[in-house]
Write a structure and sequence with these properties.
Blueprint lengths: L1 H10 L3 H5 L12 E6 L10 E6 L2 H17 L17 E3 L2 E3 L8 H19 L12 H5 L6 E4 L5 H23 L6 H20 L3 H11 L4 H6 L4 H11 L6 H5 L1
Antiparallel strand pairs: 1-2, 2-5, 3-4
Helix pairs in contact: 1-3, 3-10, 6-7, 6-8
């Protein structure tokens, strides 16, 4: 609930928009969230995509949530891409449904938020500087003025190709610097920044994480340490692996 509350406070998105988010909607650095906004009272064709800045609190909370999410998904087979999943088991058509097997739905999210906030407000009552949290998520998002930029609903093919070429070129440069023992030097630091920016631009266009990771693997950045040097959060890499039901390309595969 800390992750949920922090993200809502940063972005002002509605419960339905929140529940629709997937791992793909998190930027590699966890500094931004992609959201499809559907203004109330407007047609489906008027939906638009925004990239919303996340605070340090949201990033810290997501780093705590993603490993918890991974544990909840241990009993889930196949792909699992929903960012928010059920914390408790349930029943559907008379069959037991284990925790983590279903994406969190707006009504369940609202109930979970209210329950967690009531418990927290009781536990924190009387503490210095404590102000009770709103028990409804709608109250939390009111008045929020998020830092947002528009993004395409679907990637432009030509632009995507150019952005992926940039990811590959920056990845090769950083990989060469690391192989040459330049880690920690000015050139390697500049290489890290270049990869981070190239990856962010590709993500903002809507290029999938797995496509970027495959490109970086062929450029020589295949393991978690190398990818982290390029800005990828390790907890997100784990979530991407779990979401696809397979691991990232290995060094051996990248060298082929």
């Amino acid at each position: 609930m800390l992750a949920v509350g922090a993200v809502v406070s940063d972005t002002g998105i509605r419960a339905g928009e929140m529940c629709a988010r997937t791992i793909e909607d998190l930027s590699p650095t966890l500094e931004e969230l992609r959201a499809v906004r559907r203004p109330q009272g407007r047609s489906e064709s008027e939906a638009f995509t925004e990239l919303l800045a996340l605070s340090g609190l949201s990033r810290a909370a997501l780093k705590r949530w993603l490993p918890e999410r991974k544990q909840l998904l241990e009993r889930v087979g196949g792909t699992a891409t929903a960012l928010w999943v059920s914390l408790h088991g349930n029943h559907h058509d008379g069959q037991a449904v284990p925790a983590g097997t279903t994406p969190l739905m707006p009504r369940g999210l609202a109930r979970a938020w209210t329950r967690a906030v009531v418990e927290t407000n009781v536990a924190m009552a009387g503490q210095p500087s404590w102000e009770p949290l709103p028990t409804r998520m709608e109250q939390l998002r009111r008045g929020v003025k998020p830092s947002a930029v528009r993004a395409p609903m679907m990637p432009d093919a030509e632009k995507a190709a150019v952005l992926l070429d940039d990811v590959a070129a920056c990845g090769r440069t950083l990989a060469e610097l690391r192989r040459a023992g330049e880690e920690g030097g000015t050139a390697e630091l500049q290489g890290r920044i270049a990869v981070r920016q190239a990856v962010r631009d590709a993500w903002a266009e809507g290029i999938e994480h797995t496509v970027q990771l495959s490109t970086l693997a062929h450029a020589g950045l295949a393991d978690t340490v190398s990818l982290a040097a390029g800005g990828w959060e390790p907890v997100l890499l784990d979530a991407i692996d779990r979401g696809q039901g397979r691991g990232r390309p290995t060094k051996a595969a990248a060298a082929e």
